[in-house]
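W.,

You were right to be curious about this one. When I first looked at the sequence I had no strong expectations either way, so I just let the prediction run and decided to look at it fresh. Below is the sequence, 51 residues in total, followed by the output.
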Amino acid sequence: GKPDSIESLIQCVQTFAKGYSQETIKNVCKNVLKRASFCLQAGGGHFQQLL
């Protein structure tokens, strides 16, 4: 189910992250930030064509 507190959310993230290398997690974070930036530039609209 969904985490019901900050502590349980932190635990979920830590458990999930243990299954991936630091490099993979860094790459995912970079990609999310890049996509968020494009989304903002597009005014919240479609941005896939910018990738």
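Here's what jumped out at me. The chain has one domain: 6-50. And, maybe more interesting for your project: Residues 6-50 form one domain.

Coffee later to discuss?

I.
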